[in-house]
Amino acid sequence: MSRPPAFNFADPDFVSRYVEKGPKAFMPGQPGVLQMAGVLLAERVPEDGHVLVVGAGGGLDTQALAKAGPGWRFTGVDPAGQMLELARRILGEETMRRVELIEGGVEAAPAGPFDGATLILVLGLIPDNGSKLTTLSEIRRRLKPGAPFILVDRCDSPDNPLFDRNMDRYVAYAAASGIDPDTLKNARASHRGNPGLATAARDEALLAEAGFNGIEAFYFAMNWHGWVAYA
Ligand SMILES: C[S@@+](CC[C@H](N)C(=O)[O-])C[C@H]1O[C@@H](n2cnc3c(N)ncnc32)[C@H](O)[C@@H]1O
């Protein structure tokens, strides 16, 4: 018997499952974090500003920011074509009139300069072998001087004596959100082996190294962190 396709963007159930069982099910207060991101960007992004969304797949961040800035335009980049397809579906025709989605990493984004940028739940997927720094530097290079940047990341280290306790909490939170145990059974091993997993101190150091100023934490829940910083 053939397996059903893993992604069916025409299926409203699939789309609503991503909305309810995607990042929201894992990161405490995810809708509030996106709302805060909009508030923090709006302090400096003009009413007709242009925002760069790096890792825009799935569309949830752009959807929230489009509400925060009804006159903002967006350029979103993501290397996963299927996640961009989902973003198109979630954003809908009307919002897509002010959104351009490009398949690729930040290097695929135009030079801008942009009035603001976000990197939400993406940095932890990028290895800390120079690639994280390149991503942050390439974002900063595309921003106007003083433009705000929002970074949200799950931070930890396999060397942390509390790593296992933290993973217990990660799994327990997702299970309490209704994620089935089968989906969670490999979480500990995959986080432990993830070359992109970094501490909050490391993320802050990378932001500074990439040239961002005024780095300020605005969110912390379990191991999830959010910062605003300025180009
Ligand atoms: C967990 S999802 C988060 C999506 C969205 N930012 C949100 O908050 O809902 C991570 C996304 O990052 C994308 N991604 C992975 N590596 C990336 C990279 N080097 N540059 C940009 N996006 C990347 C993935 O394809 C995926 O769509």
Structural features, described:
The mean pLDDT is 94. The protein has one domain (12-153, 197-230): Rossmann fold (3-Layer(aba) Sandwich), CATH 3.40.50.150. The protein is α/β, with parallel strands linked by helices. The chain has helices at 12-21, 23-26, 30-42, 60-68, 81-96, 131-141, 163-176, 181-184, 187-192, 200-209, and strands at 50-54, 73-78, 99-103, 116-120, 148-154, 213-221, 224-230. Residues 23, 54-55, 57-58, 60-61, 78-80, 83, 105, 120-122, 125-126 line the site of S-adenosylmethionine.
Brief digest:
The chain has 231 residues and is an alpha/beta fold. Helix content is 42%, strand content 19%.
Number of helices: 10
Strand order of the largest sheet: 3-2-1-4-5-7-6
Output the helix-strand order: HHHEHEHEEHEHHHHEE
Strand content: 15-25%
CATH domain fold name:
Rossmann fold
Q: What count of domains describes the coordinates?
A: 1
Q: What is the subunit arrangement here?
A: single chain
Structural class comes to: alpha/beta
Rg over CA atoms, rounded to whole Å, is 17 Å
| Bound small-molecule species | S-adenosylmethionine
How many beta-strand runs? 7
Specify the biggest β-sheet.
7 strands, mixed
Helical residue percent band = 40-55%
Second-tier CATH architecture: 3-Layer(aba) Sandwich
CATH homologous superfamily caption: Vaccinia Virus protein VP39
Could you tell me the mean pLDDT?
Answer: 94
In terms of per-residue confidence, which ranges show pLDDT below 50 for 5 or more consecutive residues? Answer: none
Name the CATH class: Alpha Beta
Shape: globular
C-alpha termini separation:
54 Å
